[in-house]
């Protein structure tokens, strides 16, 4: 049984970033297929509240999936049953997470080195799911030069999975190399089940190009969505939105409002909101307008997610608000999070942010580089 998703563009499972409020924000920009953060199946089976909380979703998430990590068939099956009890419309097995804590437990990317176990877990999940689709998310292999995605893909297909989602790097590469969409394309041609590609998509025209060269069934967006949650609207409409500073502050205020709704407006909710909002600004500050006419040629040579050429223009840095929003200073990110929490409306948030930006300009505060996006365990 193949997946029957309403859109070929999928929001990736994002550890720490893929909270319900953030997914709700992405849905507002057109994300139709969303996924939980990775949940450990053994913790779900133990009934741990913090793990079960990952399975909550908003009513607007009409095609919500749950990603689980499991290294034993019985745990994979139990994880599926619990996910379905919480309303999952599809369940994904994580076989690509590169972080040490997951790998040392025999889960995530470690399963790429254990194809038979991976197939057994997949088959158990498929049997437990009934008519609900089971997908498997992998990397090209564990080590460069020893890629085994083709073998894994065939085993997953034989085990009854509905789709394969492929992050176009190995576990050891993490994010140090450009994602290999040609390899993703070869997998799509070799397999009978749909293959969704993942890696280095931050513009609508890159998504268009990746799908064209690979023939993949769709694209899963991860860091691109963290930098600009409106990427789903851009891909759907085939145009760059190029949101200015005030428009982005309105988006970030909306996220703060969703977090306040979800985490609560008390002191505990405030602490959680400030923690997550500050973290998100570590990605928001990397936003740049990347119109097709200026950037497409370079994007064909090297992914814009990876390039060092994409940096704020002098015009942007001349604008105090734009310069502040491009600042990589973590203390500033905390201040912006507090500003958003305290602002009753988007208009007041924009006014407060503009005033803070001008104050920093008057004081001669030097911005810090946002650097390159090279974090997370999404795979």
Q: CATH homologous superfamily of the largest domain, by name?
A: Aldolase class I
CATH class division of the largest domain:
Alpha Beta
User: Which structural class fits the helix and strand makeup?
Assistant: alpha/beta
Number of domains: 2
Largest sheet: 9 strands, parallel
End-to-end separation:
24 Å
Number of strands: 9
| Beta-strand content estimate | 5-15%
| SSE order | EHEEHHEHEHHEHEHEHEHHHHHHHHH
Shape: globular
- Residue share in helices? 40-55%
Give the second-level CATH assignment, the architecture of the largest domain: Alpha-Beta Barrel
If you compute it from the alpha carbons, what radius of gyration comes out, rounded to the nearest whole angstrom?
20 Å
Report on the architecture of this protein:
It is a single chain. This protein is of the alpha/beta class. The protein folds into two domains: 9-237, TIM Barrel (Alpha-Beta Barrel); 245-362, no CATH class. The chain is built from 18 helices and nine strands. The chain has helices at residues 20-28, 41-45, 49-52, 73-85, 100-103, 115-129, 149-158, 181-190, 204-214, 223-227, 231-237, 245-263, 267-284, 292-301, 314-318, 320-325, 330-342, 346-362, and strands spanning 9-11, 34-35, 39-40, 64-69, 90-95, 134-141, 163-170, 195-198, 218-221. Strands 1, 2, 3, 4, 5, 6, 7, 8 and 9 form a nine-stranded parallel sheet that branches. Helix 7 (149-158) links the parallel strand 6 (134-141) and strand 7. The longest helix is centred in the C-terminal third of the chain and has 19 residues, at 245-263. The radius of gyration is 20 Å and the shape is globular. It starts with 8 loop residues before the first strand and ends in a 17-residue tail after the last helix. Mean pLDDT is 93; it is low at 373-379.
């Amino acid at each position: 049984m193949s997946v029957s998703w309403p859109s070929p563009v999928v929001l990736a499972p994002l550890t720490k970033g893929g909270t319900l409020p953030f997914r709700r924000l992405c849905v507002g920009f057109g994300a139709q297929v969303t996924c939980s953060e990775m949940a450990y199946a053994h913790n779900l089976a133990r009934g741990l509240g913090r793990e079960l909380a990952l399975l909550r979703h908003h009513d607007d998430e009409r095609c919500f999936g749950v990603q689980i990590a499991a290294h034993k068939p019985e745990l994979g099956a139990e994880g599926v049953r619990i996910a379905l009890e919480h309303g999952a419309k599809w369940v994904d097995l994580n076989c690509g997470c590169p972080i040490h804590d997951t790998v040392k437990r025999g889960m995530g990317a470690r399963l790429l080195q254990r194809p038979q176990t991976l197939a057994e877990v997949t088959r158990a999940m498929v049997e437990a799911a009934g008519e609900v689709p089971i997908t498997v998310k992998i990397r090209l292999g564990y080590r460069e030069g020893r890629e085994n995605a083709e073998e894994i893909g065939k085993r997953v297909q034989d085990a009854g999975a509905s789709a394969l989602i492929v992050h176009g790097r190995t576990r050891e590469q993490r994010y140090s190399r450009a994602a290999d969409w040609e390899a993703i394309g070869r997998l799509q041609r070799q397999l009978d089940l749909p293959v969704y590609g993942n890696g280095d998509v931050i513009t609508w025209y890159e998504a268009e190009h990746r799908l064209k060269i690979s023939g993949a069934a769709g694209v899963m967006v991860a860091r691109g969505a963290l930098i600009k949650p409106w990427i789903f609207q851009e891909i759907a409409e085939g145009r760059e939105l190029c949101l200015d500073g005030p428009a982005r502050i309105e988006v970030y205020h909306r996220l703060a409002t969703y977090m306040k709704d979800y985490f609560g407006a008390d002191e505990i909710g405030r602490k959680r909101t400030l923690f997550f909002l500050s973290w998100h600004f570590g990605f928001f500050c990397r936003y740049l307008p990347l119109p097709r006419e200026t950037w497409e040629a370079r994007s064909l040579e090297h992914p814009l997610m990876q390039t060092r050429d994409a940096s704020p223009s002098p015009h942007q840095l001349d604008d105090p608000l734009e310069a502040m929003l491009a600042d990589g200073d973590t203390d500033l990110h905390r201040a912006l999070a507090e500003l958003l929490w305290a602002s009753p409306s988007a208009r007041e948030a924009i006014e407060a942010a503009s005033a803070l930006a001008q104050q920093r300009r008057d004081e001669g505060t030097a911005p810090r580089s946002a650097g390159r996006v090279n974090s997370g365990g999404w795979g």
